[in-house]
Amino acid sequence: MKRACVIGWPIAHSRSPLIHQFWLRTYGIEGSYTKEAVRPEELKAFIGSLKERGFAGCNVTVPHKEEVFSLAEIKSSSAVAVGAANTLWFEGDALACTNTDSYGFMANLDQSAPHWRTLRGPIMILGAGGSARAVIHGFLEAGRDDIRVFNRSIERAQETARHFGTRVTAWAWDIRNDHTADVSVVVNTTTLGMNGVGDPEIDFSRVGRDLVVADIVYVPLETPLLSSARRYGLTGVDGLGMLLHQAVPGFEKWFGVRPEVTRELYDLIAENIREA
User: Which residues of 212-234 are buried (b: 16+ CB within 10 A; e: fewer)?
Assistant: First the structure.
């Protein structure tokens, strides 16, 4: 029986088992996917014994993403771009890693708002952390050449811009609304709006009607940012789709089937979020 897991500290909140167990049932695969609580001081030993424990690989959540990246022998371009990994598997005896957040975000954007690719204009990224880097990498891979990063710490935004090169620029948080009339996509990668707390406070009164607004926060599904965007008739893309799509590559690596993100799966996880 093939086995995989998700590791983190804490890990009780993870919805990854619901996603992967749904796919195991759907495709009739004899396998398991579990949660494993791993303390930071135990991480290296746990990863070193991953194969001995019978795991084909694992997903990784906070606070371990940077550390597992350093432990892996084979690193994908997306993991290198972000400087962190969320998916591990073995190639022979070598530990390989990738970061599927870029894929997950872009796949969700393409599924939920495919017209974004026809739009011209800069991309606005709110935040400059690891999630922002994953999203930026996705847009760069898609060929976009004007990505503007707005962050409360301009120094961190500048560091992110330097990491990616001239197609990415850093801007002060306080002038974000001076740019909304020009941009084609707005993406919130901060925690503002999580559990309904906080709001990036984007002014949509002067934007084009085709603007796409995406939020990587998925608790709640309808964040203050998305509510505001929809009041202006704009296309909103919630963060749950990203969570589902980012799980696809790992499942394929471990269980040998490339799963589909269906409405049934979306509704299952959405209901779990509402009940929490």
Answer: bbbbbbbbbbebbbbebbeeeeb
